[in-house]
Amino acid sequence: MHTRDVTAAVAAAALLGLCATSFAQESTIGSAKSTTNHVEGIVGGQSKQLSTGGAVFPNETVRTGDKAVADLIFLDNSNLSVGPASEVRLDKFIYDPSGSNGAVVIQATKGAFRFVTGSQDKRVYQVKTPFGTLGIRG
């Protein structure tokens, strides 16, 4: 019985290591400037608690609880505030500080959010909602 318990513990530790590795393999695109209450980050079907200072990744879904909020800041100094009971997917983030070859695509699927563009050309930003896509001009 003791060997079976040790084997199960080793398998559980390996699984947790794989989960952490999957988050670390992606390049970070920004971080959580602040979080309040339960904020969850989901990448590749794996969930983690997102806390202040925590990294955010491309293709990550940020989900807030009923009384939770998150303020995210990206490499280009754009900001995304996610309100309570909301879900936003960070579809694409390509940072090009020297021109207009970047791309930032955010998909807001549920709840409230506020997005402020950063230092890239305004035409590279897209915010998708269930009702349409918003582009930024000027």
Describe the fold and architecture.
The chain is built from one helix and twelve strands. By secondary structure, it is α+β, with helices and mostly antiparallel strands. It has one domain. It is globular. The chain has one helix at 2-25; strands at 30-36, 39-43, 46-49, 55-56, 60-64, 69-74, 79-82, 87-94, 103-110, 113-116, 125-129, 132-135. A hairpin with a 2-residue loop joins strand 2 and strand 3. It is 17% helix and 45% strand. The strands form two sheets. The protein has a seven-stranded mixed beta sheet, with helices on one face.
**Share of helical residues:** 10-25%
Q: Shape from CA axes? A: globular
What is the succession of H and E elements?
A: HEEEEEEEEEEEE
Low-confidence stretches: 6-25
The strand count comes to: 12
Strand order of the largest sheet: 3-2-5-8-9-11-12
Q: Average pLDDT across residues? A: 84
Tally of DSSP helical segments: 1
Q: Beta-sheet strand percentage?
A: 35-45%
Distance between the ends: 68 Å
Quickly count the domains: 1
What oligomeric state best describes the polypeptide chains here? single chain
Structural class: alpha+beta
